[in-house]
Amino acid sequence: MANELSNLKPVPGSTRPRTRLGRGQGSGLGKTAGKGTKGQKARAGASKGKGFEGGQIPLRRRLPKFGFTNIFAKDYAELNVSALDGIPAGTKVDAAYLKAAGIISRIGKDGVKLLGRGELKVSLHVDLSACSAGARAKVEAAGGTVASAGAEAAS
C-alpha cells in the first residue's frame, strides 16, 4: 500500500480517545467530573481570566497606558555646527547671542547643546551648556574654542 494522503493513519498507540467526563462512577470521572466539590473552578463556564490576580488589581490595569516620560531627560535647545557658519569670525557665541540673532527660537530649560552635523569655516568662541565631542572637534579644527558647562562626550 503506497503512502498517499488518502491512506495516512496515525501510528498505533500514538493517539488515545478523549476522556468523557461525568459519565457515571464506573468511569472514574463521574459525578463531579474531576472538578472537585464546589468553588469557582467547579462551576459551569467559570474560569479565571488571563491575568487574573486573585482580586488584586491586575498588572495591566496598574501600569500606565500611553507613552513614557523620562523624568531625568535634559531639555536642551539643539543646534548643529552648520548653523554657526554665517556668524562673523571671533564672535563669542552663547545662548543669548543665538536667541537675539534668531538662530534658535528658544533656550531650553537646561540650555543649548551644540551638535556636530555640518561644517564650520570660521573661528568662534562657543560658550554653551553642552557640546557633543564631534561638535567640539569641528569648532577647534576651525580655530575656535569651546567652553561648555556640562561638557558631554557624546549623545
Question: Short description, anyone?
Answer:
13% of the residues lie in helices and 12% in strands. The chain has helices at residues 59-62, 95-101, 133-141; strands spanning 77-80, 92-94, 112-115, 125-127, 130-131, 145-146.
Element order: H for helix, E for strand = HEEHEEEHE
Biggest sheet strand order reads 1-3-5
Tell me the helix content: 10-25%
Helix run count: 3
Distance between the ends: 70 Å
Can you tell me the CATH architecture of the domain at 77-146? Ribosomal Protein L15, Chain: K, domain 2
Largest β sheet strand count, sense and barrel closure: 3 strands, parallel
Our Rg estimate from Cα atoms comes to 36 Å
The fraction of residues assigned to DSSP E strands is: 5-15%
Shape: elongated
- Mean pLDDT metric: 89
Name the features:
13% helix; 155 residues; 3-stranded parallel beta sheet; 3 helices; Ribosomal Protein L15, Chain: K, domain 2; little secondary structure; elongated
